[in-house]
């Protein structure tokens, strides 16, 4: 009888220790409103002004796109992750998150470049981002085994045509990066897709108007989300072993 109880106890401890999924906190979720144009091979003052005007135009509203991506990420993609995501409110509404001051914090001008989802902060991750990565992971080390950074960007690409008469397309890219409790990178990758919808260049300069560009962004993100779940499943499947 004692031997039986001992075995049951061991199984209970084993199940409690190894049967539970690890937990991860999403700490930033945003879209970049500055459409990249370097792939076009041009950088005139006129184009730069057009890109800035687009960013500041209320009709260039990326909020519904970010909402859709956020919804897919938490209600669909997350179901395939080998770890659980903490409830967002327990992260973004916590006082320690609100008080966290990341390096490369945005000035009022730079802040216009980014659209944060809900109460998320813009927290830089990547090259020279060690302070942020280690700082935010320590912040949630008591409740999470790691932290996740998520963002989406848009960029022009050349389509068809020659010379100054050419079509353009939009590419949507998402970067997803996971760090463990020590602030060490578990993985960081980018996935992207081109839009089916196209725009045009007139006189070698793309037509940068909200009614032209927003549908291209929508199309590109739709293409990206089309099979993103399958891609994420393959990439993230072994992440829990490194947390």
Report how far apart the termini are: 38 Å
- Quaternary status: single chain
Assign a percent range to the helix content.
25-40%
Portion in strands: 25-35%
Rg (C-alpha, Å) = 21 Å
Q: Please mark out the parts with pLDDT under 50 across 5 or more consecutive residues, or reply none.
A: 4-18
Give a verbal description of the structure.
The chain has helices spanning 2-18, 45-56, 63-75, 88-92, 95-99, 108-111, 130-139, 210-226, 228-236, and strands at residues 22-32, 83-85, 114-116, 146-162, 165-180, 185-194, 199-202, 205-206. The protein has one domain (22-242). Residues 4-18 have low confidence and may be disordered. The chain is globular. Helix content is 38%, strand content 27%. Strands 1, 2, 3, 4, 5, 6, 7 and 8 form an 8-stranded mixed beta sheet that branches. The protein has 9 helices and 8 strands. By secondary structure, it is an alpha+beta fold.
Topology:
Layout: H1 2-18, E1 22-32, H2 45-56, H3 63-75, E2 83-85, H4 88-92, H5 95-99, H6 108-111, E3 114-116, H7 130-139, E4 146-162, E5 165-180, E6 185-194, E7 199-202, E8 205-206, H8 210-226, H9 228-236
Parallel strand pairs: 1-2, 1-4
Antiparallel strand pairs: 1-3, 4-5, 5-6, 5-7, 7-8
